[in-house]
Design brief:
207 residues, alpha/beta, Rossmann fold, 5-stranded parallel β-sheet, globular
């Protein structure tokens, strides 16, 4: 059971699109307004990653069992590793009254549309696949095989992101400041306006 709370915000985009950077900026500027839903994964931690902060690191046996028990909102497998968002992770954020932010892939987006969370869906678009490849190579965390898989996945994700109706907004991240400004404007229009509408309706009902 997922608790009631503010409408969640979903950020989706290929690895290297810059969505994590936009997310960090948002959480830093509005720490009291937004809370990040920490995903589960069966992959090992990368240097500097902490369990419970960047991911909940687990194993395939435990995660598969939890999914079968209905404890996950969405899950997917990439490069042999499982990723997913648990109901508990979303509830932990919503319990604080904050807007829950989720960083999920297109399979997760398809699944979350079948829940009653009614999230705001944002797709972060890279300038080009070539630029995406340059960013991923600069990270130096991929070998040629996983890099090719990521780029193949990115092409599918970009195609899905470009289809009308899949997302509420697509933000082109060819300039980080401009992309963040577009994200902030979208949030203020859709979340703050909704909060104001709800307050007005509540005040009217109480009169």
């Amino acid at each position: 059971m997922v608790q009631k709370g503010p409408r969640p915000l979903v950020l989706c985009g290929p690895s290297g699109s810059g969505k994590s950077t936009l997310l960090k900026r948002l959480l830093k500027e509005f720490p009291d307004k937004f809370g990040f839903s920490v995903s589960h994964t069966t992959r090992g931690p990368r240097p500097g990653e902490k369990d419970g902060v960047h991911y909940h690191f687990t194993n395939k046996t435990d995660m598969t069992a939890a999914i079968e028990r209905g404890e996950f909102i969405e899950s997917a497998t990439f490069s042999g590793n499982m990723y997913g968002t648990s109901k508990q992770a979303v509830n932990d954020v919503r319990r604080t009254g904050k807007i829950c932010v989720l960083d999920i892939d297109i399979e997760g987006v398809k699944q979350i549309k079948h829940t009653d969370l009614d999230p705001l869906l944002v797709f972060v678009m890279p300038p080009s696949v070539n630029e995406l490849e340059r960013r991923l190579r600069a990270r130096n965390t991929e070998n040629e095989d996983t890099l090719k898989k990521r780029l193949d996945t990115a092409r599918r994700e970009i195609s899905f992101g470009e289809e009308p109706g899949n997302f509420h907004i697509t933000i082109l991240n060819d300039n980080l400041d401009k992309a963040y400004s577009d994200l902030r404007e979208f949030i203020s229009q859709n979340i703050e306006d909704k909060e104001q509408d709800d307050k007005t309706e509540k005040d009217t009902n109480e009169k």
